Amino acid sequence: MAELLRLAIQKSGRLFEGTQALLKECDIEFSAGKSSLKSRAFDFPVEFYFLRDDDIPTYVADGVADAGIVGLNALKESGAEVTIADPLGFGRCRLSLAVPKGVAYTEVASLAGKRIATSHPRILRDFLKDKGVGAHIHELAGSVEIAPSIGLAEAVCDLVSTGSTLASNGLIEVETVLLSEAVLITRKNLPTAQQGILDQLIFRARAVRKARHNKYIMLNAPTDALDRIIALIPGATSPSIMPLAKKGWSSLHSVVSDHDFWEVIGSLKAAGAEGILVLPIEKMIA
Ligand code: PRT
Ligand code: ZN
Fold it and tell me: Which atom of ligand 1 has the smallest separation from the CA of 181?
């Protein structure tokens, strides 16, 4: 039987969609019935294990799965000994300390002797130790944000993305403990065959991620304005330039980062570019 990479992913929840979308863009597709625990990818040597996110780091560390996709927060909280092979750029959130509105807070030391509710006790304990602050950690499995209003704690340490959950519970975010995103993890001492499959997966994921952050741009400009325009969009290697039927004009194709995209477009127009077309890129290989 051909070698497979056993990849553990979240069965359902906040990481499932991002995981599936990334894999799809990598041309790795699978079907997952509601009750299935395993599934084989079409056209790629991966077998998926559908698990709860909290279990993924241990499954990988124990070698039951070869690799996994999990939030950095869940990985750190598990303490599992695995290797982070690649950050994946989705599932971004932060683990933050928050206190009720109106409570005096100046620094972490303000929490000395207080009770802090969290579902990330290990990360919080390490953070407080690092800051030299002694506080009581009250571990909760969920609904951490309601702890202060029911008198269970004076502060919380919880995951935040938009901040609306904290706000609607009258809490103010005061400190970032950890920045998190989905990461690809692997077990130690991956056999050569599985390492090869993992490398292909990483290669594809990077090409997809790079493409997401760049756009293909086509524009027309007077040939004598090209030097200024090229300086604005140097492209991956160098822009392509083609003469237009209109004398003294050229067409230029290049790649532009989404980072300062609108500013660059403004500068291109000011430099004489016309008929600017911007297209999404599917894959980008350096
Ligand atoms: O069933 P299973 O155990 O697999 O899932 P789960 O319920 O434990 O986890 P799930 O699906 O909620 O989250 C999985 C992972 O998604 C987390 O470990 C994080 O890495 C990541 N993630 C990203 C988040 C959030 N954003 C997030 N906002 N996980 C949780 N939240 C929660 C947060 O706990 C709070 O209740 O969303 C609320 C805050 O959201 P905002 O937008 O109001 O700030
Ligand atoms: Zn979970």
Answer: 20
Characterize 173-185 residue by residue with b for buried, 16 or more Cβ atoms within 10 angstroms of its Cβ, and e for exposed: bbbebbebbbbbb
User: Which pLDDT tens digit goes with each residue over 157-206?
Assistant: 999 999 999 999 999 999 999 999 999 999 999 999 999 999 999 999 99
Q: Does domain 93-179 have CATH number 2.60.120.10?
A: no
Judged by its nearest atom, the ligand closest to the C-alpha of residue 91 is 1
Torsion on CA atoms 92, 97, 100, 104, rounded to nearest 10? -140
CATH topology of domain 214-280: Alpha-Beta Plaits (3.30.70)
71 Cβ inside 6 Å of ligand 1: yes
Distance 63 CA to ligand 1 centre (A): 26
Tens of pLDDT, residue by residue over 74-130, are 999 999 999 999 999 999 999 999 999 999 999 999 999 999 999 999 999 999 999
For residue 56 and ligand 1, the question of a CB distance below 6 A is answered with no
Q: Of the bound ligands, which one is closest to the alpha carbon of residue 159? A: 1
* Model pTM score: 0.92
CA distance 236 to 250: 19
